[in-house]
UniProtKB/TrEMBL annotation:
Keywords, ordered alphabetically: ATP-binding, Kinase, Nucleotide-binding, Transferase
Polar residues: bias regions: 507-518
InterPro entries, per the entry: PInositol-4-P-4/5-kinase_C_sf, PInositol-4-P-4/5-kinase_core, PInositol-4-P-5-kinase_N, PInositol-4/5-P-5/4-kinase
Span list, region Disordered: 493-518
SMART domains: PIPKc (SM00330)
Annotated Gene Ontology cellular component terms: plasma membrane
Pfam families on file: PIP5K (PF01504)
GO terms, molecular function: 1-phosphatidylinositol-4-phosphate 5-kinase activity; ATP binding
Domain (PIPK) ranges: 52-459
Protein name as annotated: PIPK domain-containing protein
Entry keyword annotation includes Iron-sulfur: no
Amino acid sequence: MAISKDEICEGLYNVDFWNKLDLHISSYVITPLQLRYISSKTSIIGRALGHAIVDLLDNVTKNSNQYIENETTILGTEHRVYHSRQYTLKVKEDDLSCSDLNINNNDDKILFRISSLAPNIFYQLREDIGISNENFRQSFFEHYLKDFTNPGKSGSLMYKTYDDLFILKTLRDYEARLLMQILSGYHLQLTQRPTIFNRYVGLYSIRMETSLTTIEIYVAIMVNAFTPSLKINEIFDLKGSKIKRKLTGNLSIDKLYKLKDMDFMDLYPSGIRIPTNIYQTLKIVIANDVKVLKKLNITDFSLILGIRHLDMSEIQLIGRRPATGVAALLSLSNDLGLMHLSKPFNNVSSLDSENNQTSSLPSYLKPIQMLNISIDTNLYYNNDSIAYESLPIPGIINKSNQRVYIYLAFVDMLQTYDSFKLLDQTFRKLTDRNRHLEYSVIEPDDYEKRINEFLFQNVFIDAQDDFPWAITDVSKPVADIDNQFIENKVSNQRKNYTQRRPHSMERQNSNSVLEFRL
């Protein structure tokens, strides 16, 4: 696929002031329709966007001595500046599935106009938070973006860079405008105080002509908090909500990365202890972050929590939620097979295992660094190179005293409590008065109180003097605990299954059950 381009133009983007009474009807209706329309063209869009990110970045002056004042920017309007260029893609015959994007059939061309929004502010922001623009450029330069389906209900298009360090996600237009409005203050938040806000490091708009209309979508670039190289075993999306916040069915490896609030309560009923100095700092930082979002009238954001286990295998993690009935029989058969395989567990996350060869770098989000505190790294990260580079929070599961590493960040921080959400909450109050505060979307004041209480009553526990961290080589596999665990599990399941079966069925099917298990 060949790409040609015209001259770069500059201008000031029209950013409307935030209006609390705005229903954002166009965003709720038009944006999903546009995303659905272009969902089959993600590969073409990803290639054009990746090329434009590098191209427009190169347009930002890197040498201050070469700066030339333009005719557009007015002091104080830097957050509204855009650099825009039209890109012409010459597609091959096998790419013509996107012919409804107004392709010129004579020469098989697709036209995109891609704009980098607030390019100079984002350029400086990246440098200030420790991401050199040379490294940022390299993440987009050598390979195409990888597109992957958004597991959330928003239906957003999402991409990752080949090295997994950055995630690109489509935003609704009002979310993009809000990010531009708060960008200068957001920049200061990241550089002048400890915060676990996820890092937005770029914003782009893509305009394309179709046979019916013009489509414009917005794409934000964010730091990937949970790269495969971190070897995270579980990911929780936490809001403090109770309604529709638990996965159904038995646990599986894939489900371990889609867990929610009630799953955490089920799997960690007594929470996770963390050292007192970290607990006290984290409590202050989270309280400050949530208050900042509340004052912006933002709700429905999430704390994403990644947990890497040091003393438990994947088999044990799945076995914490016991299966019953036929599912128990299938689980038993699988466990027997695993015993024969005797495959060592190496604590490697399956988030993106097929691409682990490109994921040698940790995330730019380092929890201890974000909290701006010091810990005894020799004690907590003994012989673990990944921990030394990524600086996770050490934790101990209450009651079991098993060790974990914790990664975390606030995400989805651009959803304001608009009139549409107000109507939804009013309806909940009328139809479910006793539980209306347990739904995901509630008023920002209530959201602030709920998420703080949930996190520091149920998730993070002050260890005080009770933090028995064992000094061991955490880089070693824990396969030695697998076989004994499986043997105990198989024995218990076999006993339970035998006790629950009718005696006639036991006599008739004893041989067939044994054959099925093997």
